[in-house]
Amino acid sequence: MLTNAAGPFTRVGLGLGVPTTGIAKCALSTALSTAASSTPQISAAVDPGQYCVTVYDLGTLTTPIDFSVTLVYP
Questions:
Q1: How would residue 49 be classed by pLDDT, with cut points 50, 70 and 90?
Q2: pLDDT of residue 72
Q3: How far is CA 63 from CA 14, 26, 59, 60, in A?
């Protein structure tokens, strides 16, 4: 869940995947464009293992931003 991203109307990319050794370091299986919210943007049933989350610029940011992500696993 992207809980903060420089303001309520700032949209960024949010993705969930598995770690890789490639340039990106995270092979995304799910990705979307989103703004911060108190409602989860991505929900996935996953097997035990290692996963990664990526927050990325959609090409609209003009300065660096602070962001917060919350992960919940039962």
A1: very high
A2: 86
A3: 18, 23, 11, 9
- pLDDT above 80: residue 74: no
What does the alpha-carbon distance between residue 1 and residue 11 come to, in Å, rounded to a whole number?
13
What is the per-residue pLDDT across 12-30, written as a single tens digit (0 to 9) for each?
999 999 999 988 899 999 9
Give 16-19's long-range contacts (Cβ < 8 A, gap of 24+): 16/42, 16/44, 16/51, 16/52, 16/53, 16/54, 17/51, 17/52, 17/54, 18/49, 18/50, 18/51, 18/52, 19/50, 19/51, 19/52
